Amino acid sequence: MRLGRALLDEGRPAAALDQFKAAALLSPRDAHIHAELGLAYLQSGDQTRAIDEFRQSLALHPADAETRYHLGIAYGQRGDAAQDLGGAALQSELGCN
Hints:
0% strand, mainly alpha
């Protein structure tokens, strides 16, 4: 997990994907791993897979506001304004607009 996070922080999402995919195979019910995998997909430009991972993460840990925020970002980048409303509202609440 730490290596994957470091790779994301370095702007290397493709390399991070390999790390997070391996972690998800070992711990498929870890919400944090799915959230990180979603971020790697999002940074790689694959909004559809990012959305899938964020939704899996939220199914395991529904109260995670940061993952909800990233899910809204992914929907927004995909051009799905109706789904983005939740992320936009949270972004506004957090003062990130």
